[in-house]
Amino acid sequence: MDTLVDDLSERLARRIRLERDGRGWSLADLAERSGVSKATISKIERAEVSPTAVVLVRLASAFDLTLAGLLLRAEGRGDRLSRATDQPIWRDPETGYLRRQVFSSPDHPVEIVRVEMPAKQRVSLPASSYAHIRQALWVLTGSLVVTEGETRHELGAGDCLGFGPPAETTFANESNASCVYVVALARS
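The structure corresponding to this sequence follows.
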């Protein structure tokens, strides 16, 4: 699994550079649009560092893409059939959060993501990550606290949350056990 994750990091580095170059943006342009420093973007593009989930979401938003859209472009696939063995896996180097892109296709409005959130970890994403999508989160195992702006939702296995208007959102596993959940999202 780590080989898949490392291979995706290399392809992701190339894809971010390609997305930036394709728009004719300098590092400074992308930094201004994403809120990520030029130095960090440069290191990501050279595959010297693996970006965190928060940084990837900011970069994807700057390109007017979802995180899944950016990862899909890095993978270079767009099939309607998503075999388990071919689903891209990415690990957040900061939290250990493991993200499996179960389904995403450029010609289909729905994306499905499976996430494993380690115990005592959290990821906060800016409101801009939700500007062009609608999503629902379904907890498979464990528990998860989702805070949208000022609203806190405590979810257990089997619970499902449909997200409201775009807001800064924190996904927190406050328990001592791993949490597995599925996110289904549709581009709006």
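Confidence is low (pLDDT under 50) at residues 1-5.
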